[in-house]
Amino acid sequence: INIILLGPPGAGKGTQARRLEEGRGLVQLSTGDMLRAAKSSGTEMGKRVAEVMDKGQLVTDEIVIGLIREKLETSDAAGFIFDGFPRTLPQADALGELLRNMGQKIDAAIEMRVDDEALVARITGRFTCGNCGEVYHDTTKPTKVAGVCDVCGSHDLRRRADDNEESLKTRLLEYYKKTSPLIGYYYAKDLLRTVDGLAEIEEVARQIDGALGKES
Ligand code: AP5
Ligand code: ZN
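# BIS(adenosine)-5'-pentaphosphate complex -> structure
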């Protein structure tokens, strides 16, 4: 099955995508992670997107659709969790068409509903493992041993360049202007399922399982 996780920055998309990956054998496709990888590997594209991302603006549809197309064409996974993609109406149309061409479809778009005040605390407290990608939070999800990743033991714990209040403001504006129309778009296709993103991580996970129906 193919699932889209929809929600503002800090809603918990990455956190839940990793859980769904383990539980259902799906593959997480995060355009944010792909763009950060391009940025840190110093490719031409990475250099072009770095400044845009750090400011909190969206990169062009052409670039992200290209990244997703490449992944879909080269993966033999049973299904995908789209995390942070699509983020605009043209991206949503492109994804529908890419999947159609592969004889697949979107099974659900999960809207993770949260309010803006909670997002500031989530974003400013976040850090991730540079080795395995596990997502942590200073207060809601700290590592068991300070400075060491619970999952892989790495000491490479990082904070993102765009996780500051200034860039977050821009990211929220971009979300409301360009991404939130996708809620209506998927509702009209009868694919929208809404969960309470403010609940605890485990409770959000249960609501997503409920929205998706039985393990597939
Ligand atoms: P991206 O990497 O996609 O960032 P984002 O959408 O801003 O989302 P985040 O990763 O910040 O949040 P999340 O919802 O995954 O939350 P998380 O699980 O980490 O995009 C970054 C940039 O790349 C964009 O600004 C843009 O420039 C570019 N980009 C990417 N995709 C693009 C596209 N399609 N088109 C154009 N440009 C694109 O959780 C956040 C924190 O909260 C963590 O610390 C976590 O531990 C904690 N937490 C999670 N759930 C809970 C909970 N239930 N209770 C308490 N704490 C929780
Ligand atoms: Zn790790």
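# post-check
The beta strands are 3-6, 27-30, 80-83, 108-113, 126-129, 135-137, 157-158, 192-196.
The chain has a mean pLDDT of 94.
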